[in-house]
Amino acid sequence: MFHKIVSFFCFIIKSKNEHGVHSPFVFDLITSCFYKKKGKNDLTIFLNYKKQLSKNTSLLEISNFNFMSRLLLSHKRKRSRIFKDSEISNKRARLLIHLIQYLKPKNILEIGTGFGINTVILSSAQRNSKITTLEENEQVVKAIKEIFKKNTVKNVKFLTGNFDITLPRVFNNNTYDFIHFKGSCANKTILKYFESSLLAIDNNSVFLFENIHSNKESEKVWNYIKKHEKVTVTIDTFFWGFVFFRKEQEKEHFIIRI
Fold first, then answer.
1. Out of 48, 179, 185, 197, which could bridge 221 as a Cys pair, Cβ 3.0 to 4.6 Å?
2. CA-CA distances (angstroms) from residue 35 to 31, 68, 133, 182, 256?
């Protein structure tokens, strides 16, 4: 926690808004997407899904069988605690919606479905996109699929199994415009997934990483990604990190307040 507080303080000092950005591409992204005004109904599907998710007893039962539950010798936990780790604020949900609407990606890959909250956001933002989401827990995916049917979410394809097996399958002769890496950057496997994903990108592909400042290890991973030879532009918003591969752009890293 102390590291995160210090990192945030440094972020505030170094960060800029659109007035400190000289790249036309990044300036337009910030003004037309990051700072876009709220829409009246842009969070409706997202909020409805969260309500349904909290009422799904089968998913709650599955979620209780994790390490922490066994450690506490109890499978009874408050619903708010169960979904806390996968929670996304309304502000971040709206930003993700605006980003997808701005980029208009045709093929989206989500590495880690979780409870499907981000998946629903991606789906509702761009109904004509094809979304592939990977998850290792088959029971969770089965429960989420039932909720998706009730919400008429049709543009999502689920692949279950170990990521070491499913990732090579999705990268085989496929190109993705947007790849969302779920979980903390502190996870060492993120780098492996990042390297593998470079086989399935083009000039306009965008990567999204979470929790890039959660601890020293996550910042180390983020710095490695920033320096990678194929990466040209990165945007650090503290809680999320965006990566671009536009060859026409000079290599530059931005720290933006949102």
1. 185
2. 5, 38, 28, 23, 11
**What gap in Å lies between CA 26 and CA 30, rounded to an integer?**
6
Beta strands of the chain (E only): which ranges? 107-111, 130-135, 156-160, 178-184, 206-210, 233-236, 240-244, 252-255
pLDDT value for 205: 98
CB-CB contact of 97 with 42 (8 Å): yes
Collapsing DSSP to helix, strand or coil, 156 comes out as strand
CATH superfamily of 2-38+88-255: Vaccinia Virus protein VP39 (3.40.50.150)
- Report domain extents, the chain: 2-38+88-255
N- to C-terminal Cα separation, the chain? 21
Nearest to 97 by CA among 71, 126, 117, 74: 126
Query: What is the pTM (predicted TM-score) of this model?
Result: 0.88
- Give the span between the Cα atoms of 26 and 32, in whole angstroms: 10
Q: CA 244, 250, 253, 258 torsion: positive or negative?
A: negative
CB 201 within 8 A of CB 176: yes
- What is the rounded CA–CA span in Å between residue 5 and residue 244? 27
- Put residue 183 in one of left, alpha, beta given phi > 0 → left and psi -120 to 50 → alpha: left
Tell me the pLDDT tens digit for each residue of 131-155. Answer: 999 999 888 888 888 888 887 788 9
